[in-house]
């Protein structure tokens, strides 16, 4: 006997896609998206494309558009397990817009992509709320996005997020390796926590090997493990732009996947070398916990996690004090962590030396 459709026939809903739930999610997220609007944004949420008035770029002599795209990685699984959905959007904005600001670009607008196994309108709206709040912190508009329901591919509670952003920088203010000079100061800006990289290692070490529960209270943290793992990624975009207005910044480096040394090396010219002294800061407890629980060697930790530094600024040595003052005035914990030297016999663009400070 051959299989046949039911009397009512097959439908999208029967296949697991709930269009009405998707429509409700859009209605719930509208109020949050509205909070991100910039005067250059035209139209509202719900169109096929987001519109941004490019005539605003006439104030630039030679505007260069900067773009980036990223996700949050397996940190989303921590959010799923804890049922906390309104912080993961901060992570997404940080991963995209803090990449864009590295070249000196002002963030303009962003779009997001949320993929779910089943649309829970309030859950999707909470994710977008976090993205919108992150956009406000980055100074950019959220001009649109997509929520895709993938039943059968993802479980009912599974989800992932990704985003793409655009910024603009005046051509003669473009930051990068060509501006860096011997003697420049390497200024570290403190991370808020693990940020959004290395969670495959963190989850494996703490949850699988260590058998720790997300609701376990960790004395060193002063809160639960889950709360620590969901601390949102610091968004540095407006801080970096402010620093450029007061200081002769030569380059930035966003410390993400690959760790501090590898990301810093990406902006160092072939003839120069960056030395970062570990003794200039103390590791936050979460990094010690990961290292000790999994017996992870220091070099492995350092090429996976940010080790407490989320953004690096490279400035002339005589501008370091002014840079630290600007950052302090904005509430950013920062310090001189190293310097730029000639490459000499060094085979890499950056290295960490010494031992981390202890309390």
From TrEMBL:
<keyword id="KW-0067">ATP-binding</keyword>
<dbReference type="Pfam" id="PF02769">
    <property type="entry name" value="AIRS_C"/>
</dbReference>
<dbReference type="GO" id="GO:0004641">
    <property type="term" value="F:phosphoribosylformylglycinamidine cyclo-ligase activity"/>
</dbReference>
<keyword id="KW-0547">Nucleotide-binding</keyword>
<comment type="similarity">
    <text>Belongs to the AIR synthase family.</text>
</comment>
<keyword id="KW-0963">Cytoplasm</keyword>
<dbReference type="Pfam" id="PF00586">
    <property type="entry name" value="AIRS"/>
</dbReference>
<dbReference type="InterPro" id="IPR036921">
    <property type="entry name" value="PurM-like_N_sf"/>
</dbReference>
<feature type="domain" description="PurM-like N-terminal">
    <location>
        <begin position="61"/>
        <end position="169"/>
    </location>
</feature>
<dbReference type="InterPro" id="IPR004733">
    <property type="entry name" value="PurM_cligase"/>
</dbReference>
<keyword id="KW-0658">Purine biosynthesis</keyword>
<protein>
    <recommendedName>
        <fullName>Phosphoribosylformylglycinamidine cyclo-ligase</fullName>
        <ecNumber>6.3.3.1</ecNumber>
    </recommendedName>
</protein>
<dbReference type="GO" id="GO:0046084">
    <property type="term" value="P:adenine biosynthetic process"/>
</dbReference>
<dbReference type="GO" id="GO:0005524">
    <property type="term" value="F:ATP binding"/>
</dbReference>
<feature type="domain" description="PurM-like C-terminal">
    <location>
        <begin position="182"/>
        <end position="346"/>
    </location>
</feature>
<keyword id="KW-0436">Ligase</keyword>
<dbReference type="InterPro" id="IPR010918">
    <property type="entry name" value="PurM-like_C_dom"/>
</dbReference>
<dbReference type="GO" id="GO:0005829">
    <property type="term" value="C:cytosol"/>
</dbReference>
<dbReference type="InterPro" id="IPR036676">
    <property type="entry name" value="PurM-like_C_sf"/>
</dbReference>
<dbReference type="GO" id="GO:0006189">
    <property type="term" value="P:'de novo' IMP biosynthetic process"/>
</dbReference>
<dbReference type="InterPro" id="IPR016188">
    <property type="entry name" value="PurM-like_N"/>
</dbReference>
<comment type="pathway">
    <text>Purine metabolism; IMP biosynthesis via de novo pathway; 5-amino-1-(5-phospho-D-ribosyl)imidazole from N(2)-formyl-N(1)-(5-phospho-D-ribosyl)glycinamide: step 2/2.</text>
</comment>
<dbReference type="GO" id="GO:0004637">
    <property type="term" value="F:phosphoribosylamine-glycine ligase activity"/>
</dbReference>
């Amino acid at each position: 006997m051959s299989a046949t459709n039911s009397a009512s026939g097959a439908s999208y809903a029967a296949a697991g896609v709930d269009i009405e739930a998707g429509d409700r999610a859009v209605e719930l997220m509208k109020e949050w998206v509205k909070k991100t609007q910039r005067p250059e944004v035209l139209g509202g949420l719900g169109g096929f494309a987001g519109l941004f008035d490019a005539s605003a770029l006439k104030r630039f002599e030679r505007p260069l558009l900067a773009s980036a795209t990223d996700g949050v990685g397996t940190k989303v699984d921590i959010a799923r397990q804890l049922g906390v959905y309104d912080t993961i959007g901060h992570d997404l904005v940080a991963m995209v817009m803090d990449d864009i600001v590295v070249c000196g670009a002002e963030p303009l607008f962003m779009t997001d992509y949320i993929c779910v196994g089943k649309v829970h309108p309030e859950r999707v709206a909470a994710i977008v709320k976090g993205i919108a709040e992150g956009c406000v912190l980055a100074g950019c508009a959220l001009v649109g996005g997509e929520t895709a329901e993938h039943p059968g591919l993802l479980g009912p509670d599974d989800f992932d997020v990704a985003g793409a952003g655009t910024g603009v920088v005046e051509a003669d203010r473009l930051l990068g390796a060509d501006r860096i000079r011997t003697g420049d100061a390497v200024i570290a800006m403190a991370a808020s926590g693990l940020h959004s990289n290395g969670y495959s290692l963190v989850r494996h070490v703490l949850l699988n090997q260590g058998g720790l529960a997300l609701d376990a209270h960790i004395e060193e943290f002063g809160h639960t493990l889950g709360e620590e793992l969901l601390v949102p990624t610091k968004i540095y975009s407006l801080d970096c732009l402010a620093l450029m207005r007061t200081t002769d910044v030569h380059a930035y480096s966003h410390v993400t996947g690959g760790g501090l040394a590898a990301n810093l090396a990406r902006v160092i010219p072939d003839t120069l070398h960056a030395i970062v002294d570990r003794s200039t800061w103390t590791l936050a407890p979460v990094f010690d916990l990961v290292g000790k629980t999994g017996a992870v060697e220091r070099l492995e930790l350092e090429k996976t996690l940010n080790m407490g530094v989320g953004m690096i600024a490279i400035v002339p040595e005589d501008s370091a004090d002014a840079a630290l003052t600007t950052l302090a005035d904005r509430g950013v914990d920062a310090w001189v962590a190293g310097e730029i030297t000639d490459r000499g016999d060094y085979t890499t663009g950056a290295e960490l030396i010494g031992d981390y400070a202890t309390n």
